[in-house]
Amino acid sequence: MPGLDLSDDQLELRTLAHKVAHDLFEHRALEWDEGRVPFPLDDRRRLGELGFLGIALPEQYGGGGAPILDALIVIEELAKVCRPAGFQVFEANTGPAQVVAQLGTERQKAKYLPAIIRGDSSMAVAISEPDAGSAATDMTTKAVREGEHFRVNGMKRWVSNAGHADLYLLYVRLTDEPGARGIGALIVEKDFDGVSFGAPEKLMGFRGIPSRDIYFDDVMVPAENLLVDAGGFRKLFNAFSIERLGNSTVSLSIAQAAVDRTIDYITTREQFGKPLIEFQAVQTELADMVVEVEAARLLVYRAAIEAGHGLPDPLQVSIAKRAANEAGKSASDKAIGLHGGNGYSEEYGIERLHRDAHGWAIAGGTPTMQKVRIVSELLGRKFDQRA
Known about the structure:
- This is Butyryl-CoA dehydrogenase.
- The chain has 11 helices and 10 strands.
- Helix 9 runs antiparallel to helix 11.
- By secondary structure, the chain is of the alpha+beta class.
- The radius of gyration is 21 Å and the shape is globular.
- 51% of the residues lie in helices and 15% in strands.
- A hairpin with a 2-residue loop joins strand 2 and strand 3.
- It has 3 domains: 8-121, Acyl-CoA dehydrogenase/oxidase, N-terminal domain (Butyryl-Coa Dehydrogenase, subunit A, domain 1, Orthogonal Bundle), CATH 1.10.540.10; 124-231, Butyryl-CoA Dehydrogenase, subunit A, domain 2 (Beta Barrel), CATH 2.40.110; 234-379, Butyryl-CoA Dehydrogenase, subunit A, domain 3 (Up-down Bundle).
């Protein structure tokens, strides 16, 4: 497809990210997964020193000012061997910090972005609630303006990096208007009085990336931390498309890792006196994996290239996320089958890819919800899923 060739600088960036992934993180990824160990602060700062945490953030705050695609290139290379490492670059460049860069005030950007880019601070996004997951507009966490502060009460669930991140982009109900009309967003610091965290979730995958409930009990948030006022929910979700593009890239990385590991295995493992790759059934399975991965990559790159330094097209992002999420699950599943009994063993790392593939498919909007988004964006219509 024309226009998808990487520049020399981007190829060099991919080579550097590949080297960093294998030299710094590959040998520790399994340990972090087994122990559910949060990504170490020193390693996050190392990523900051390399420029990876601010690669697509504005130069005036210490970032690289590069297009979103450059960040995705780094995310993919890191996440192929260590998802917690890739997650740090994901959150800074395509997650809530990027939303601050796109929508925040000059004061907010100057206050929070430099530390995130250095790796001294991190930011997580808090949207979901026990009764408001895919139906995000059902959220009940509320902020009431009192003078120069907002008083926040409520809770959030499924917050990746909760308890570990220093800052939270909190989606919150600012007025009593129903649905999306009353929703906006605040920047909440971890150390604000009244912020507390539940027990760590024990998830099937996503290990090394903590997940906890967050509780807000009369938390007083300065009014200057208002990122988006009530009625700006659409702006927030348009900006969230960048996060979905990052999410798609992690799924893509899992799918590519499954292909890479499978090729290595089936070209060296012998059965019936010859390498597995000599069997036609094995060839057809590998071919399907490659097609899924390459199709997903083209869709992710298309959305990123057309976005440039700005917001991607929501339709393109939903298409890319759906394709990449499914590629991650499908390729890792096929890899288990092609590895036989070894694919079911922790030793070969395939089961870890498969566990993570399902987690990244759910995060940021499930593949099923992306189908609804695709049709909605395609036809320019909203579909009420409620009774």
